[in-house]
Amino acid sequence: MLSKRGLTPLEILRGSPIANMRKTKKFLTGFTLIELLVVIAIIGLLASIVLVSFPSATKKAKDARIIASLSQARNEAAGYYIDGSTYTGYTITAALSADITAKGGTATLRIDTNGSDYCMYSGLNNGGYYCADSAGKIGKIATDPGATGATCAAACVAASTCACPTGTTL
Question: pTM score > 0.85 for this model?
Answer without folding.
Answer: no
